[in-house]
Amino acid sequence: MEDPQEPILTAHKAAADRLRELHEQLHSWELVGRSLGISGGMAYRVALQGYEPKDSGIRHRLGLPVNPLVMGTAVFCAKCGRAFVGKWGNRRKFCPICRPVNQSEEARDE
Ligand SMILES: [Zn+2]
């Protein structure tokens, strides 16, 4: 089963690795942030705390894909409790795994 969030996590790890590399060279989160056009605090949080920036401009500077969580909204599955990405105006109750395949409500979704 493919995790739809996997590419985001991979991109985030690459961005965090890059920030930590810059920090080894610059020895300052402020300078790391400045070199990328973001704040030092943001650089620190993304690199060390797994923070996902919401701002699409910041995401672009970090080489992150535009977050689906920005385009849609994080929802927790009513059945298994797993978090997944829903879409604006389309409040799904179930994650892709628990979602009934041939439900008419879902048919017009994709
Ligand atoms: Zn589920």
**Rg over alpha carbons:** 17 Å
Low-confidence stretches: 104-110
What distance lies between the first and last C-alpha atoms, to the nearest angstrom?
19 Å
Specify the structural class.
mainly alpha
Residue-averaged pLDDT, rounded?
78
Unique ligands: zinc ion
- How would the global form be characterised? elongated
Helical proportion, percent range: 40-55%
| Count of beta strands | 2
As laid out across the biggest beta sheet, the strand order is 1-2
For the biggest sheet, the summary is: 2 strands, antiparallel
Total helices: the number is 6
Walk me through the topology.
Elements: H1 6-26, H2 29-36, H3 40-48, H4 56-61, H5 68-71, E1 72-76, E2 83-87, H6 104-107
Antiparallel strand pairs: 1-2
Helix pairs in contact: 1-2, 1-3, 2-3
The chain binds zinc ion.
Describe this structure in words.
With 110 residues, the chain is mainly alpha-helical. The protein has six helices and two strands. It has a two-stranded antiparallel ribbon with strand order 1-2. Helix 2 packs across helix 3 (40-48). It is elongated, with a radius of gyration of 17 Å. 15% of the residues are buried. The model is unreliable at 104-110 (pLDDT under 50). The protein binds zinc ion. Zinc ion is lined by residues 77, 79-80, 82, 94-95, 97-98.
